[in-house]
Write a structure and sequence with these properties.
The complex is a heterodimer of chains A (515) and B (469).
Chain A: H1 36-42, H2 45-48, H3 66-78, H4 100-106, H5 109-112, H6 124-141, E1 145-147, H7 153-170, E2 179-183, H8 189-196, E3 200-204, H9 214-220, E4 225-230, H10 243-252, E5 256-259, E6 280-282, H11 285-288, E7 303-305, E8 317-320, E9 325-328, H12 345-381, E10 401-404, H13 406-412, H14 416-425, E11 432-433, E12 442-445, H15 453-472, H16 474-478, H17 491-495, H18 504-510
Parallel strand pairs in A: 2-3, 2-4, 4-5, 5-6
Antiparallel strand pairs in A: 1-7, 6-7, 8-9, 10-12, 11-12
Helix pairs in contact in A: 4-12, 6-12, 7-8, 12-15
Chain B: H1 18-28, H2 58-69, H3 93-99, H4 102-105, H5 117-134, E1 138-139, H6 146-161, E2 165-169, H7 174-184, E3 190-194, H8 205-211, E4 216-223, H9 234-243, E5 247-252, E6 270-274, E7 290-294, H10 298-301, E8 308-313, E9 320-325, H11 331-334, H12 347-383, E10 401-405, H13 413-422, E11 429-430, E12 441-445, H14 452-467
Helix pairs in contact in B: 3-12, 5-12, 6-7, 12-14
Classes of the chains: A alpha/beta (515), B alpha/beta (469).
Bound molecules: pyridoxal-5'-phosphate.
Pyridoxal-5'-phosphate binds at residues 92-93, 152-154, 187, 189, 231, 235, 260, 262, 284, 299, 301 of chain A.
């Protein structure tokens, strides 16, 4: 398949580990000088360090010029695929276009060079931005107040479950209410966050419609229930129509309702978690609000809460007295801190610019087109032999749809993983695979609103070809990818105690080279 | 839809063009997008337009945000002597350029390693360099920040030792202590503080010995300490901890490790810290970059939180490659039994740190440490000559931050701060409330970006303010 005509070809630099590059004595950066007077007054700085605390061992880092460093990382970047490269339909991840103006603004020195402990009078501009962003996000989610501090969605979940804990503690029910309910379709962070906050995760199954099974939920709730974590639309892309009933069941037993905002994109301006009865809502700024994922982060995971829960939010809170913005630490019920300072501010600034670029109408358009695109793909992919759409296939999805490649696998041996790998050969990123857990051979596809019909059609075409190829020439798929920087990797080797090398140092040690 | 250009399409939404929508809907057999929303119960459909500002054109967004930001006064407008976990350092242009490469910037977590090889290699290089700096053998590819890394480290130690007490120094950033408490209270851990020697600030070994027991899961120290001095009794502390079967966790500012002994050499089991200082702007306190490293011991490695990139080969063995390793620790597989809930992290900040460390190299990192220590100690030298000012409070060696005490003057730290600010200088952080026993004290920070002139101006202005009374 290599070099197949008209196919994608990723850069394939034979770029060594940076430790193998360079020459002794080369320098990549010159630091500001230490002035003579400073040296004279201080004397030998190393003599100031107590002898037993001086670094004696050689720091084994490469020695490179700026030229080599830039080239090395530039080559690495060329062996990577981003949203700017093409469709990135990772379900649940909302890989939308990251507007360039946002990057420009977030790189201004007027934010970069701000220290978090500066006098409030010198940071009024950024506080105003954060304060207004909080107001906008409460409006969008239908919550009462927003805390911008969490660094990511899972961090927001952790905060959310801590808020549940604080709430029940104040009611003297913390010990008793030690269970958090999560659907079996939930993202792994939900049960993991609940566990971190000291709860037992109780799993409720989905019904034949792919939604929370109401009878099972009724059976699961009890006076031990601290709350329910739910994403709506859920991870199948299906709207939980029974949300009113779900909220009622949870609230009547004294539990709180938590909204995992990973799937907020398709309901922007169309419906709001707060209106549906959710007490705590997190937002994935790096999904819904267009900030780039940076190969894993940084993102931001603001948390919105109902009025009753505001007093528990981490300090400080940004307050505005009509004239000046202040950071308020005087919150006796606050749970305290979940991190240092106030949040991933540079990321939040991008969300601020994004909301301004779209306005209320624009955000609604974002939602609608994301749903249009997802349903368009769903309609087209349903026609492909080998794929099925579990859970009432006639029902519209919202932002994403989850196909199963089980028939294809049974008939040809080509699995969801193999399809994913073969898609890479087309210069398309793969969907999320094997999630949610309730779909066998899952392919979870979220196109977002920011890809044009032509690119969506290209994806459909690639999927059709791959599934056809599975029946005619499965070998090519089983060996894929062929056109990426590296061919299929041995993931078992990477985690096997005998071969595991998690750093250069560990690699050298394993290979008998002394440090 | 409304849009700044007055046309019915938005630059970020190519399919917002009405005829494309119609075309797609025709193929789908629907007449309106609202049909796709029919399953949302009527009562939850938002009937109003969101109350948000009207959309602006790109130029208007730019001028609006720029003008708000220009209300700020930054470290470029005035010398700022603040640190305390977020530090002003220079970020080389090459670092900024590389982290803006859109293939890295706009990619997701490398779930598909074959097409994400560049990011994987860069992150592996970051992990490897952190290991070299800290003297550890394994590092993950980032935590949210130092404080949350500490919270996770304590939980990890508790899982490993099946014990539930954590000892931390009395001298610690209050936000780190607060975060540790919030992370660890639900896991049933309790935190006790170890007193310090009032003369030197060093950990009181006596108090450590009286508090450590077979209930202790881990002892945590910071080096340099929150108040800037170098903790020197690391070997005694380490020995004490390990004799009790507890784990030794050390928190670091990596800019010190070109000249200070790495924690791996005094037998730390886990190292945490804040690597914002390596090539990342302060950005008003975030994003940050939490360091998390440990020894090459499978028991420890299997309890690590966060994503770890491992070296491997292609299946055919023809080529070296990288992928995420040990994913069975993580939430997407282990769910409620995962070692942590962390999913998205601070990967791009880690790439920035890798580029930064590559640019500086071994010599540069040593020079960085020396330069910082020279300048901080020059500030100590000048400030200590001022009548009524005592700096540092503790008789110990100081790296980049140091305490300045005003008990010998009749001004409060707050008053000094206000007067300096009027003169266009931002002093350090007031720690009088955090450590009442230290009196009227502030924590100053000096790095390589502060010139001799900045420091002399600080000293001269301070003197004027204090004498001018
Ligand atoms: C449904 C869902 N919930 C939670 C998360 C966790 O968010 P984050 O990665 O920002 O921590 C994700 C992201 O992968 C998700 O898809």
């Amino acid at each position: 398949m290599e070099g197949e005509n008209g196919m994608f070809k990723q850069a394939k630099w034979n770029e060594p580990l940076i430790f193998k590059l360079g020459r002794k004595g080369r320098k990549g950066h010159i630091l500001p000088k230490v002035e003579d007077e400073v040296k004279r007054a201080v004397g030998d700085v190393n003599a100031l360090i107590p002898e037993n605390m001086r670094r004696i061992s050689q720091l084994r880092l490469p020695e490179l010029s700026e030229v080599e460093v830039t080239r090395h990382f530039m080559r690495l970047s060329q062996m990577n695929y981003g949203v700017d490269s093409g469709l990135y339909p990772l379900g649940s991840c909302t890989m939308k276009y990251n507007p360039k103006i946002n990057e420009f603004l977030a790189n201004l020195p007027t934010i970069g060079m701000l220290h978090p402990y500066q006098n409030e009078s010198t940071v009024q501009g950024i506080l105003e931005i954060l304060y207004r962003l909080e107001r906008w996000l409460t409006e969008i989610t239908g919550t009462y107040e927003i805390c911008l501090q969490p660094a990511a969605g899972a961090h927001g979940e952790f905060l959310g479950t801590l808020l549940m804990r604080a709430y029940h503690k104040l009611n003297g029910e913390c010990k008793k209410r030690n269970e958090v309910i999560v659907p079996d379709s939930a993202h792994g962070t939900n049960p993991a966050s609940a566990a971190m906050a000291g709860f037992n995760a109780v799993v409720v199954p989905s019904d034949e419609n792919g939604c929370v099974d109401l009878e099972a939920l009724k059976a699961a709730v009890s006076e031990r229930t601290a709350g329910l974590m739910l994403t709506n639309p859920n991870t199948l892309g299906i709207f939980e129509e029974n949300i009113e009933e779900i909220a009622k069941i949870v609230h009547e037993t004294g539990g709180l309702l938590y909204y995992d905002g990973a799937n907020l994109n398709p309901i922007l301006g169309k419906a709001r978690p707060g209106d549906m009865g959710f007490d705590i809502v997190h937002i994935n700024i790096h999904k819904t609000f267009s900030t780039p994922h940076g190969g894993g982060g940084p993102g931001a995971g603001p948390v919105g809460v109902s009025e009753e829960l505001t007093k528990f939010l981490p300090v400080p809170r940004i307050v505005f007295d009509g004239e000046r913005y202040r950071l308020d630490y005087d919150r006796p019920y606050s749970i305290g801190k979940i991190r240092s300072f106030y949040g991933n501010v540079a990321v939040l600034l991008k969300a601020y610019a994004y909301i301004l670029s779209l306005g209320g109408e624009g955000l609604k358009e974002v939602a609608e087109v994301s749903v249009l695109n997802a349903n368009y793909l769903m309609k087209k992919l349903k026609e492909i032999e080998g794929l099925t759409l579990p859970y009432i296939s006639e029902k519209p999805r919202k932002h994403e749809c989850v196909f199963s490649a089980k028939p294809l696998k049974n008939e040809t041996g080509v699995s969801a993983l193999n399809i994913a790998k073969r898609l890479l050969d087309y210069g398309l990123h793969a969907p999320t695979i094997y999630f949610p857990l309730i779909v066998d051979e899952a392919l979870m596809i979220e196109p977002t609103e920011t890809f044009e019909k032509e690119e969506l059609d290209r994806f459909v075409e690639a999927m059709r070809k791959i599934c056809e190829e599975a029946y005619t020439n499965p070998e090519a798929i089983l060996q894929a990818p062929h056109n990426t920087s590296v061919s299929r990797l041995d993931e078992v080797k990477a985690s096997h105690p005998r071969t595991m090398a998690l750093s250069w140092r560990m690699y050298l040690k394993k290979n008998g080279q002394n440090l | 839809m409304v849009n700044p250009l007055g046309k019915h399409t938005h630059p970020y939404i190519p399919n917002s063009l009405p005829e494309i929508k119609r075309e797609m809907m025709r193929e789908m057999g629907i007449k309106s997008i609202n049909e796709l929303y029919a399953d949302i119960p009527e009562k939850y459909r938002l009937k109003k337009l969101l109350n948000l500002p009207d959309a602006l054109s790109e130029f208007e967004v730019k001028t609006h945000v720029e003008s708000l930001l220009s209300k700020n006064k930054t470290c470029s407008d005035m010398p700022v002597f603040l640190g305390a976990g977020c530090w002003p350092h220079y970020v080389p242009a090459a670092v900024k350029e590389i982290v803006q490469r859109s293939e890295l910037l706009t990619s997701y977590t490398p779930y598909q390693p074959e097409i994400s090889h560049g990011m994987l290699q860069a992150l592996f290089e970051y992990q490897s360099m952190i290991c070299e700096l800290t003297g550890m053998e394994v590092a993950n590819c980032s935590m949210y920040d130092w404080a949350s890394a500490l919270g996770e480290a304590a939980r990890m130690a508790s899982r490993l030792t099946r014990r539930s007490e954590i000892l931390i120094p009395k001298i610690i950033h209050p936000e780190r202590a607060a975060t540790l408490h919030v992370y660890d209270e639900p896991a049933g851990l309790s935190v006790k503080q170890i007193a310090y020697n009032s003369e030197t600030g060093q950990i009181s070994l006596e108090d450590l010995r009286s508090k450590i027991s077979d209930k202790t899961a881990a002892v945590y120290i910071e080096n340099p300490s929150y108040l800037g001095f170098i903790e020197t009794q690391v070997y005694e502390i380490s020995k004490e901890i390990h004799e009790h079967g507890a784990l030794f966790i050390v928190g670091v500012d990596p800019t010190s490790l070109g000249i200070l002994k790495p924690p791996g050499e005094y037998d730390a089991d886990i190292v945490v810290g804040e690597a914002q200082s390596l090539g990342n702007s302060m950005n008003f306190g975030g994003p940050l970059l939490g360091i998390f490293a440990c020894r090459d011991d499978l028991k420890l490695i299997r309890q690590m939180p966060g994503r770890i990139i491992g070296m491997t080969t292609t299946l055919d063995g023809s080529r070296q490659g990288f992928c995420m390793a040990l994913q069975t620790r993580e939430q997407h597989i282990r769910r409620e039994k995962a070692t942590s809930n962390i999913c998205s992290n601070e990967a791009l900040c880690a790439v920035a740190a890798a580029v930064y460390m590559s640019l500086l190299g071994p010599e540069g990192l040593r020079e960085l440490g020396e330069t910082i220590m020279y300048k901080a100690n020059y500030a100590i030298h000048l400030l200590s000559k001022i009548n009524g000012v005592k700096t540092p409070v503790f008789k110990s060696a100081h790296f980049k931050e140091f305490t300045v005490n005003f008990d010998g003057t009749d001004l409060s730290v707050k008053k000094v701060h206000e007067k300096l600010l009027q003169c266009g200088i931002h002093d350090g952080k007031d720690v009088s409330k955090e450590f009442p026993e230290l009196g009227k004290t502030a924590l100053y920070c000096v790095t390589e970006i502060h010139s001799e002139e900045d420091i002399e101006r600080l000293a001269a202005t301070l003197e004027e303010i204090l004498i001018g009374r």
